[in-house]
Structure formats: C-alpha cells, structure tokens
Amino acid sequence: MSDIVLVTGAGGFLGRHLVQTLRGQGRTVRTLARTARAALDGVDQQLGSVTDRGAVVRALDRVGAVYHLAGMVSRDAKDAGAMNEVHVKGTRTVLRACLERGIRDVVHVSTSGTVAVGKHDDFVADEAAPIAWDVIRGWPYYESKAFAEKEVAAFVAEGLPVRMARPTLLLGPGDVDGSSTGDVVKFLCGDVKAALPGGLSAVDVRDVAAILPTLMERGAPGVGYLLGAGNITVADFLKLLEQVSGVKAPTFSLPRKLIDRAGDLIKQASRLKALGGLDPQTFEMACHYWYLDDSRARHDLGWDPRPLPHTLRDTVEDLRPGVN
User: Fold this and answer.
1) CA-CA distances (angstroms) from residue 187 to 6, 53, 203, 316?
2) Residue 18 has what pLDDT?
3) Which of 56, 192, 260, 267 is buried most, with the most CB atoms less than 10 Å from its CB?
4) Both ends of the chain: CA-CA distance in Å?
5) How many angstroms separate the CA atoms of 170 and 168, rounded?
6) CA-CA-CA-CA torsion for 24, 28, 32, 38, nearest 10 degrees?
7) 61-97 pLDDT tens trace
8) Where do the DSSP E strands lie in the chain?
9) Options 3.30.930.10, 3.30.428.10, 3.30.230.70, 3.40.50.720; which CATH number does 4-172+201-230 get?
10) How far is CA 196 from CA 34, 76, 88, 129, in A?
11) What's the whole-number average pLDDT of the chain?
12) For 92-148, what is each residue's pLDDT tens digit?
C-alpha cells in the first residue's frame, strides 16, 4: 500500500497541525485545496475542490490513507449554500472516490456540535446521543455538518470503514485565519461585555491533530468520537481567560430569565458595539450548553488532552501580538 496520505482542508487550523504531525511521523503528505498555502511549502499541494470528482480522483492517485477535514466555518446565513456544498457534497464525493478505489483507511472530521449541544445545564452528550436537530436547525454550519455525518453513515453501511472525529471548540496556537479563536480575540480586545448563561467545551488543536492517526488505526468505524478537554460555563471560561491574559473579565452576567423574557429584542441589541457586537446566532449559541463526555475516546484511543488552562495560555500568547 502507498505511503502517501491525502489531507483535505490542510490549510485550515486543524489541517496545518495534522500535516505537521504526519510529516513528523515520516509520512508523505499530499493535500487537496482550491488554493496553495505558503505554510504548506514542501508538501505536494494538489489544486482543486473536494466537490470536483475529477480533482478528487487525481488527488487520490497512489494514496493509501485519507483524512477528510475540508470545510467552511461561518455564522452568516448567507453562507448556508456554500457550507452545504462543501460539507455534504464534498464528503459524498471524497468518500465515493475512496470506496471505488479501495482506500479503506479514511478519517472524517466532523464537530461535536452535531450532537453535543443542549438547552439545559445538566445536558452532556456521548457518542450515542442523537443529532440535535431541534437545537441546530437554523445554524447552517452545524446543520450541514450533521448532514455530512449522514453521508458518512451511508458509506459505512456500504462497507467503507470510515472513522469519525467530533472535536469540540479548537483552541491553541496557529489559527491564522481566526476561524476558531475569534471569540478569544474579542475578549482580548475588551469587546466581551457580559457573560451569557451557557456553557462550552474546548480542546487543544494540537491534541486533536495528534490523536487522528490513532483514530484511523484503532477507532471503530461509524462512531463519532467526541474529543474535548473539559466542560465549563461561559462565565468560568471568561475568568480563566482573565487569569492567563490579565484582561479583566466582565463582572456582569446576563440572567437567563431576562433573556427568555426579552427574546429577539435582546439578541438584536447584542449587535451594538457597546453590548458586545454579537450577531444573533453567536448570542444564541452562547446561551446553550456544549457539554460532552469523552470517555469512549479515552478508553478506545488513549485520549488524554492537556488541561484547558494550558491551552488558553498558549492561545493568548499566540494571538496577543496581532491584538496589541
């Protein structure tokens, strides 16, 4: 079998760390993306879209393993069509080509947000949790990722043993596009004016990149392994950021009762710079609980992520030169 490994989405936050991990293991890496990236110099960069069957088939020539990370991150409803195209059609195109070419070492990277999001603080999801359609409907990124997971399930049923990762919020150094650490930048700039009554999970991008080869080797096909480093309320997360950055966290927390009573009015008001400059979707998301149980990944894969304060410290140190 060929030693060439194809990584789609290699120019993204997780993708760049994964390429570094694979090259450190002595693997020959090829990437597929619409544009070349200077950060990937020295890598065989194939140009093309994951939605283009011809480009995918050419990129798979002499490939023995595939990590499918390609995606688009946006909270803008106008991008719904583009995200659906990349996440759903792109996943279908890549997996169909893998099946036809007999490539059985395939990892698909989804997101914990397809299942690990609830409306109450006692909510915690594991791999058996159903897709949270009632919550994510209207959030195009998570909806399209959930439909991509349905594509994965269909190909597993056809006999392609796809392994799937569901990392939570990725933090750490190297997010040059700001696709995942944008809210930390807002905090460092003093734009976070109040803590919202929700909770989140986060994880170090370096730990996720390091576990993906293990997932390919040892993971159970079709299982969406949840990868996190701990669950924490939004308020406590902001306090942690204060500790590692020295930037004062807001002392005011918006009461859930006030949010429930004010409804859309307070969501729309949150757009104002004085109130944080949050779009309504971000506001909604911060009022939910993104809690997960990563016990299965710990048991099956030996998952052992670094503590969240360490990741936040490194994230802040990496972002700070661009904020000041």
Assistant:
1) 36, 42, 18, 10
2) 98
3) 56
4) 49
5) 6
6) 60
7) 999 999 999 999 998 889 999 999 999 999 999 999 9
8) 4-8, 28-33, 44-47, 63-68, 105-109, 163-167, 169-171, 199-204, 224-227, 231-233
9) 3.40.50.720
10) 38, 20, 32, 25
11) 93
12) 999 999 999 999 999 999 999 999 999 999 999 999 999 999 999 989 999 999 999
CB distance 116 to 285 below 8 Å: no
pTM: 0.95
The side-by-side arrangement of strands in the sheet containing 224-227 is 44-47, 28-33, 4-8, 63-68, 105-109, 163-167, 224-227
Q: Percent of the chain having pLDDT more than 70?
A: 94
What are the domain boundaries of the chain?
Answer: 4-172+201-230
**What digits encode the pLDDT tens for the residues 232-282?**
999 999 999 999 999 999 988 887 777 776 666 666 656 656 556 678 888
Nearest to 269 by CA among 278, 260, 261: 278
How far apart, in whole angstroms, are the C-alpha atoms of residue 35 and residue 269?
38
Report residue 216 as tokens: 């390919």
